[in-house]
Amino acid sequence: MTLTEIVDQWALRSSAIRSTKATWLRMRTDGRIDALMRSSDPIAQQIGRALRRARDRDLRESQPWVERIEAERTRLAADRSLVKPPGSTEGGPYDDGVTVQQACGVSKTKRDALALHLLVREVQPNLGLELGTNVGISSSYIASAMHLNGRGRLVTMEGSPLRARIAEGVHRTLGLDVERVLGLFTETLVPFVARSEPLDFVFIDGHHQYQPTLDYFAAVERKLTDGALVLFDDIRWSEGMLRAWTELARDARFRVVVDLDRYGVCVYTRTPGRSREHVRLKI
Fold first, then answer.
1. What's the gap between Cα 44 and its chain centre?
2. Which residues is 231 bridged to in the sheet?
């Protein structure tokens, strides 16, 4: 057998192994989504339907919104100007030397943002809160879902006035009504929650460390409705973030926990002690 033939056989076997692994992963994901949809918990069923649509790229009436939001992402991704212009006294703790392109680059991917959008389409929250606006991509996916639902209001919090301004432009271009709260979470979150109506959707996407994550959840918990959806982003961002997520995923206050690898989806309960469901999958 020649060297060329050996290399060709190795390539064919490697391709077959990759194909088999992909098929197995797909089957495992399908099984776990099906398990959610068969759950006795109605919100787990809604999560399962949303994740199935995200897996299948089943956009339906969301397609025009996705295209418009992604056009905004493309525009920002091509902008190499600085978030904080030279000489500016404004800015958040992470704005120095960062371009709009780089800031946009840490936004949720289209795949993950679409899952967010479809989760909101399914659970139809009345009041949602996002911690960490950045340049407005994820909030646009959430707010557009609320627009299609014909109900719901989104409040998004951001520590950088410059990024908040970029996000405001994105929301304005898309015609989305999003309420913005400007300031460090340590200064704005507790006062906001104190005056807020009940929250049934919370997306925690900022300061991905152990104690801040637990503190932010503790702050919003007092206003969470029974059955509220709480999402924790970048759960494997850091050792501290993973430790926080590991504790939260075991917390009896969450009756359903879905680990999507990049972020976690939890269903909050005010009556701990019921049976719990914990599912890990990739979409």
1. 17
2. 203, 265
Least confident stretch, 95-99, 173-177, 269-273: 269-273
Q: Which of 51-60, 88-97, 263-272 has the lowest mean pLDDT?
A: 88-97
What is the distance between the alpha carbons of residues 235 and 269, in angstroms, rounded to a whole number?
A: 21
Q: Is residue 54 part of a domain?
A: no
Q: Answer whether residue 40 is part of any domain.
A: no
CATH value at residue 164? 3.40.50.150
**80-98 pLDDT tens trace:** 999 999 888 888 778 999 9
221 contacts 198 by C-beta, under 8 angstroms = no
Structure tokens at 90: 């404004």
Cα–Cα dist 90/46, whole Å: 42
Residue 200 falls inside a structural domain: yes
Question: What angle (nearest 5°) sits at the alpha carbon of residue 9, between those of residues 7 and 15?
Answer: 100
Model pLDDT, residue 88: 87
Range of the domain at 225: 61-280
Question: How many domains are there within the chain?
Answer: 1
